From TrEMBL:
The keyword Nucleotide-binding does not apply. GO terms for cellular component: blood microparticle; haptoglobin-hemoglobin complex; hemoglobin complex. CDD domains: Hb-beta-like (cd08925). The keyword Electron transport does not apply. Transmembrane segments: none annotated. This is Globin domain-containing protein. Belongs to the globin family. It comes from Alosa alosa. Pfam families: Globin (PF00042). Residues 1-145 form the Globin domain. GO terms for biological process: hydrogen peroxide catabolic process.
């Protein structure tokens, strides 16, 4: 459940996020900081070091895909679980992604956003943003059993 104020805070953060810039950075950071996540991206080519990951166009493109999927959540904050039900099933059944990794990506995204926004990303805004991402993480894990 999100209040009207929380919805407007999340929409405000989202409006300032450039998907094409933040998406690649967030996914690259996950792959660098948590190298075991690389195992899911065997078709992406060279991920052997940070420079290779940051320069990898498949990582960049997929980072944009992931962040574009967040747009649906921002626009459906009253039904985050339903919004990500099919994507949860896909990551579980088809991709076999360990759902713990969703939290890691959410945290990396918050770090990238905080770095980019600086002091505009106040503790209150950050708390609401992370509450939203928590809902997305829970929703993405909801079809695992
Ligand atoms: C594919 C979203 C987290 C691994 C996808 C796709 C979307 C998506 C929209 C494309 C689905 C399609 O083709 O229909 C998300 C969101 C995440 C998330 C919103 C969290 C906020 C993760 C994490 C991992 C992961 C943490 C692994 C560590 C994959 C893989 C694919 C995929 C391997 C297929 C990539 C390919 O070969 O093209 N994800 N994802 N995802 N996701 Fe995620």
């Amino acid at each position: 459940e999100f209040t009207a104020n929380e919805k407007s805070i999340v929409s405000g953060v989202w409006a300032k996020i450039s998907v094409n810039e933040i998406g690649p950075q967030a996914l690259a950071r996950v792959l660098i900081v948590y190298p075991w996540t690389q195992r899911y991206f065997g078709s992406f080519g060279d991920l052997s070091n940070a420079a290779a990951i940051l320069g990898n166009s498949k990582v960049g493109n997929h980072g944009k895909v992931v962040l574009n999927a967040l747009d649906k959540g921002v626009k459906n904050m009253d039904n985050v679980k339903g919004t990500y039900a099919a994507l949860s099933k896909l990551h579980c059944v088809q991709l076999n992604v360990d759902p713990d990794n969703f939290r890691l990506l959410a945290d990396c995204l918050t770090i990238v956003v905080a770095t980019k926004f600086g002091s505009d990303f106040t503790p209150a805004i950050q708390a609401t943003w992370q509450k939203f991402l928590s809902a997305v993480v829970i929703a993405l894990g909801s079809q695992y059993f």
